[in-house]
Amino acid sequence: MSQPTTKPHLSLSKILQMNLGFLGLQFSFGLQQGNMAPIYSYLGADEASLPILQLAGPVTGLVVQPIIGAMSDRTNSKWGRRTPYFIVGAILCSLGLLFMPLSQSILMAASLLWILDAGNNITMEPYRAYVSDRLNEDQHNVGFLTQSAFTGLAQCLALGTPALLVGLFGMNKDAIGANNIPDTVYVVFTIGAVLSLSTILWSVIRVPELPLTESQKAEIAAQPKTASATFREIGSAIVEMPRPMRKLGVMMLFQWYAMGIYWTYVTYSIARSVYNTSEPVSDGFRSAVLTNGTMAAFYNAVAFVAALLMMPMIRKIGARKVHAAALVAGGLGMMAIPQMTDTAMLFPAAIGVGICWGSIMGTPYVMLASCIPPRRTGVYMGIFNMMIVIPMLLNAATFPFYYEPWLGGDARNALVLAGVLLICAAFAVLRVKDSELGTA
């Protein structure tokens, strides 16, 4: 489906407002990254089973995102093509966040995570397409890296708020409910529920989608709307996938397998290296959770700044080189974190992780948008996000088998492996040639 040749040029203020919903969306992801593994541990899960319990995100992403992408490409409603999906997803996300801290069992927490991740993925996929729909190609750089900047800011707030509640507002970090979940988790998840819905509503009201042209409406009307037609469209798009997108898939495999390891095991690595404990119900472990939250808030603040600085750098030397350098920085940072035995030394190591994260959430989409046909923006954004969730599914399926025999059951070794994989991702992205981008 073709878009108008020239779209209205948006001011930076409008681009910021259209991406404000990413603040709420990524606040939710930040809460998951910083809290889901500990929540499972509070409820009695063992470390080796954590990747399996985190399957909700990868599986819902694998199933939901390409389907929602294909459906939104074919949607013509009075609210727009992407907006209905934003709203439904934001409501589900808010409900999942509200009830998660009330979990009384591992099964309940896992079930709520499925609802939460379904909501996140329903919103995430059309949001990427929305930026591509709304902006001319010369503004894609600013659009996607603004999303990346909001990702850093949102996750900085999500991960740093528990420590602020303790240090600034005097909450007791050891105050827990009957389910062993700290009171700080209750408060921050409620904040996330409010932000998830309110920021999405702000974005879609302040910067509505462009109206479809008559030819676009006619093309949508002529397309079959059955479930089988949707799956055929996804299959056809995979078969006809542009060559540079296939190359980016190799990078995504290394990159997201590494991130899955990092998010699951960084708290456990800090607990061992800094607090000399591996016991989830200990005071040292709760301290490690707060330390990781503060460190993650710091590296997300770095990501916020890095994403802004990458905008002129990408214009000057290209997206693939910028992303490769960021991945190397992240790899070195991840390998350094387990070597630190003092809290203060974690933060210099986390700078590299922040630079990497600032690039991961924006730069690959700049490359992708330049090599896919506009009429298939939604479905290809969905398929690209399958390249996020498949590595994380592989992580969940394979990691429990070698965590003990190969890595000694030590989370510090897991982080070193994650760093090596990010450096492999850097070499993979350099296989994409500049001449292959911007040719769709």
Strand content: under 5%
- CATH homologous superfamily heading of the largest domain: MFS general substrate transporter like domains
What is the highest CATH level, the class of the largest domain? Mainly Alpha
CATH topology of the largest domain: Growth Hormone, Chain: A
What value does the average pLDDT take?
A: 88
Q: Give the CA-CA distance, first to last residue.
A: 13 Å
The low-pLDDT segments are none
User: How many domain units?
Assistant: 2
Cα radius of gyration in angstroms: 21 Å
Helical proportion?
Answer: over 70%
Number of helices: 17
Question: How many strands, which pairing sense, and closed or not: the largest β-sheet?
Answer: none
Structural class: mainly alpha
Number of strands: 0
- Give the helices and strands as they follow along the chain: HHHHHHHHHHHHHHHHH
Shape: globular
CATH architecture of the largest domain: Up-down Bundle
